[in-house]
Amino acid sequence: MTRTRRARLIAASMLAGTLWLTGAYPAAAQKVAGWQEDPFPSTYRAPPQADVLIRGGIVLDGAGKRIDGGDVLVRGGKIVAVGKGLANPGVREVNAAGRWVTPGTIDVHSHNGTYVLPLTTIDNDASDVSELSSPNVADTWIETAANPQDIAFARALTNGVTTIQILPGSTPIFAGRSVIVKPIMASTIAQMKVPGAPQGFKMACGENPKSYGADDDNEGPTSREGVIAYMRNAFLDAQDYKRSWDRSRAGVGPAPARDLKREALAGILAGDIRVHVHCYRANDMAAVLAIAREFGFRIASFQHAVEAYKMPEMLRETGTCAAVWSDWWGFKMEALDAVRANAPLLQRAGACVTMHSDSPSDGQRLTVNAAEAAGAARRIGIDIPPEEMIRWTTSNAAKLLGLEKRVGTIAPGFEADIVLWSGSPFSIYTKADLVMIGGGVAYDRSRPETQPVSDFEIGRKAMQP
Fold first, then answer.
1. 274-311, pLDDT tens digit by residue?
2. By C-alpha distance, which of 225, 229, 217, 265 is closest to 245?
3. DSSP letter (8 states) at residue 221
4. Which stretch of DSSP H or E encloses residue 275?
5. What is the DSSP string of 143-205?
6. DSSP string across 286-342
7. Which pLDDT band holds residue 13 (cuts at 50, 70, 90)?
8. What range defines the domain where residue 278 resides?
9. What DSSP designation does 256 have?
10. pLDDT at residue number 449
């Protein structure tokens, strides 16, 4: 290609971006990029709405505020008022005296529906957590594999979880799209899928993907440096694909032949798909942040982020959240340098931090995990009060998912995802008494008929929540 032709193509691509943003070229040319489409649209319907005034509880609003003896008014699926001594406009009133009220808990890292327990075969034939045909399976969507009958969804709901991100596994480098769901009883994932939620994508660095490539039967890199090089080459290729799309939408040339793998990565480069990266070590996270800087996109979160406490300034500057455990460590080499106070150390440094599960068991106990981390903080002189601690499982988690204006906070205008707890949500003895999703009662511990039952449990002895 001559220098003149290259310059013309670059100019056309830049013009395409300008015209697209301003809407200045004909509507017929304004094609929706493939990565902006959703081939699996949501059919979600919130539980029947129940206008209610929750009266006199200890309200943690998820944004750092605590109201003792606080009231929360829900109407039309939304939170309409929060405060003390609210007037009752003629709705059902719930006495919350002595109980705690919080936003619904959000699990940002789940494999519910794809790693269904108990696995019944030695070879884990029941698991669909990872597609292992290539280090790059960016064309896959985890929602096409998830089984809504997994009992983990019901267990999460009855323990106060109202939003879950299901991620693909971390064996491939480019593992595919995630899906965000509500843990309601449904026959399909589409019926659980949050409408209008930002698209998410899973990548992986470190031991998992390099070990995959080291298997004699698998292609792919066998070292950390190989994984990073693989990422850069894939994004270079996606960059060319995106430029072809931009020129086509500007009317300069034909649309490229669809390539679903390149399309997903082009969507990342365009800023339309949020990236969540499985990473443990600080140097691994720094390397991935360098790639994001090189190619002009943002990392929404590092998942696991065991050594995030070593690099809070980098996370703060890039606006990247760290999704961490309270005490998982030592199960592989890259997890050895963990500290239990990871979350509070990050918060003290001004970085975004959330708890996450990666486990159907921990997915029911995220607030207790937060309490464990806060306990570790107290032992080193950091005091995290409940109104701040709750952010690790609510508003910060909503921010990580791109839902911070919809859920995770008890404030007027937010969707009414609310939990009424029997006591402090940070106690192992506390139960979720009432769970509301979108202003509807999804679970009421006092009403056995609201107890969700999976098909997997029909005919089995009932378990008390």
1. 999 999 999 999 999 999 999 999 999 999 999 999 99
2. 265
3. -
4. strand 273-279
5. GGT--TT-HHHHHHHTTTEEEEEE---SSSSEEEE-EEE-----SSGGGTBPTTPPEEEEEE-
6. HHHHHHHHHHT--EEEEEE-TTGGG-HHHHHHHT-EEEE-SS--SSSGGGTT--TTH
7. very low
8. 34-46+104-409
9. P
10. 84
| Cβ–Cβ under 8 Å, residues 172 and 130 | yes
Residue 78 lies in a domain: no
Q: What Å distances lie between residue 403 and 15, 176, 235, 315, 409, CA to CA?
A: 32, 20, 26, 19, 10
CATH number at residue 165: 3.20.20.140
Q: Do β-strands 299-304 and 273-279 pair in parallel, antiparallel, or remain unpaired? A: parallel
**Is residue 277 in a domain?**
yes
Read off the tokens for 53. Answer: 């005034």
Amino acid (1-letter code) at residue 447 = R
**177 pLDDT exceeds 70?**
yes
> Whole-structure pTM over 0.70, yes or no?
yes
> Quick one: tokens of 57?
């509880």
Residue with tokens 């098909």: 455
Confidence band of 259 (pLDDT split at 50, 70, 90) = very high
Dump pLDDT digits (tens) for 55-64. 999 999 999 9
Task: Give 10's pLDDT tier (boundaries 50, 70, 90).
Answer: very low
**CA dihedral for 9, 14, 20, 24, sign (positive or negative):** negative
- DSSP assignments along 102-132, one per residue: EEPEEEEEE-TTTSPSSP-STT-TT--S---
Residue at 276 is within a domain: yes
158-169 burial: b if 16+ Cβ within 10 Å, else e:
bbbbbbbbbbbb
In which residue are the tokens 């939304």 written? 78
Q: Which residue has the tokens 């703060």?
A: 316
Dist. CA 289–CA 297, nearest whole Å: 9
| CA dist., res. 77 & res. 75, Å (int) | 5
Cα separation, 211 vs 224, in Å, equals 10
Tell me, yes or no, whether 25 lies in a domain: no
Amino acid sitting at position 240: D
Mean pLDDT, the chain, whole residue set? 90
Domain count of the fold of the chain: 1
351-383 pLDDT, tens digit each = 999 999 998 888 899 999 999 999 999 999 999
Whether the Cβ atoms of residue 82 and residue 72 lie closer than 8 Å to each other? yes
CA–CA gap between residue 65 and residue 82 (Å, rounded): 11
pLDDT above 50 (res 16): no
For residue 420, what are its two tokens?
A: 């009424």
Cβ neighbours, 10 Å, residue 200:
24
Residue in the structure block whose two tokens are 């509880």: 57
Provide the residue count of the chain: 465
